[in-house]
Design goal:
mainly beta, 4-stranded antiparallel sheet, two-stranded antiparallel sheet, 6 strands, 35% strand, globular, disordered N terminus
Length: 77
Amino acid sequence: MSKPSMGVAVPHDVDLSEACWRKSSYSGGANDCVEVAYLMGAESVGVAIRDSKCAWGPVLLVAPSSFAAFLGDPQLR
């Protein structure tokens, strides 16, 4: 039950109930940004991304290398 993402399988049925969501300190008090959670469980390695104003809504799951490429940080690749 996974879909390929840049050569890495990312599970799409991951339990996010205990995910530690982070939001940039630059976001201030407004809820107009995204939150990320790094997933490092026994069955999953990836990054979950969600809209901070709709935390109960859909979540995008990507491979760590895909997230690093999105951020443009060569040290994270």
